[in-house]
Design a protein that fits this description.
Layout lengths: L2 E9 L4 E7 L4 H17 L4 E6 L3 E6 L6 H14 L10 E8 L7 H7 L4 H10 L2 E6 L6 E4 L14 E4 L3 E5 L2 E4 L4 E3 L2 E5 L20 E6 L2 H8 L3
Parallel strand pairs: 5-13
Antiparallel strand pairs: 1-2, 2-4, 3-4, 5-12, 6-7, 6-13, 7-10, 8-11, 9-10, 9-12
Helix pairs in contact: 1-2
Length: 231
């Protein structure tokens, strides 16, 4: 069963609560998470703070001097009832240019071999799919994308790299994602985008947001360097 019969409410300290909607990572549960986040953010309830959607739950911050745990719980239940009446707008579809393989995707041959595919098939399968941004987390702007073709599922590296370049596109299990900054990481790297997923001087600083749809567009190394230089 993906959805719980009733949402579960868990305290997260004295200034936030977690609303769990299901026990599986699925597009249906995640869509409901985003719908609930949209209703809560649109209503602008006094005392509510940041709303943080995840795979199957929502973290709701609140001011404990203005609202109690039970009052926030009641607001969330009312918002859930309103989700069908006020569905979120159609998600954005964002195209992400990617140069696959070579120095930009050092693990693409492993992904191909692990799944009995050619490198060209990996690129075709990965770039033909449409993904959903399930959540942003780990570091600012890191995208967890659902919708990876099952034929591309590949385990993480046994030992994480000490440095993964910003823009790297990786696979971990049945997920794909994009590294927004230079950080350590253990996902299998298959390519890199010249786009900046996170820029603290930009408004908003994060390129993608939960609920967005993503499509990867293969580009050449020459195009990568041109776009990275702002051409």
């Amino acid at each position: 069963m993906a959805f719980y019969r009733a949402p579960r409410f868990l305290p997260a300290g004295d200034m936030a609560l977690v609303v769990e909607l299901g026990d599986e990572i699925s597009e249906e549960v995640n869509r409901q998470v985003h719908s609930l986040a949209y209703v809560l953010e649109s209503a602008s309830f006094p005392g509510l703070g940041e709303i943080v959607p995840t795979y199957r739950s929502l973290l709701v911050h609140y001011d404990p001097l203005r609202l109690s745990f039970n009052e926030v719980k009641d607001l969330v239940l009312e918002a859930l009832r309103r989700c069908e009446e006020a569905p979120p707008p159609e998600p954005r579809v964002v195209e992400i240019p990617v140069v696959y393989g070579g120095e930009f995707g050092p693990d693409i041959e492993f992904v191909a071999k692990h799944n009995g595919l050619s490198v060209e098939e990996v690129i075709r399968l990965h770039s033909n799919a449409t993904y959903t941004v399930y959540m942003i987390g780990f570091v600012p702007g890191f995208t967890y994308l659902g919708g990876l073709p099952k034929r591309l599922a590949t385990p993480r590296l046994p030992t994480p790299r000490t440095l993964v370049p910003a823009g790297s596109v990786g696979i971990a299990g049945e997920q794909t994602g994009i590294y927004p900054i230079d950080i350590p990481g253990g996902w299998r790297l298959i390519g890199r985008t010249p786009l900046k997923l996170f820029d603290p001087h930009r408004e908003p600083p994060v390129l993608l947001k939960p609920g967005d749809k993503v499509r990867f567009v293969p580009i050449t190394e020459e195009e990568f360097h041109k776009q990275a230089a702002g051409g």
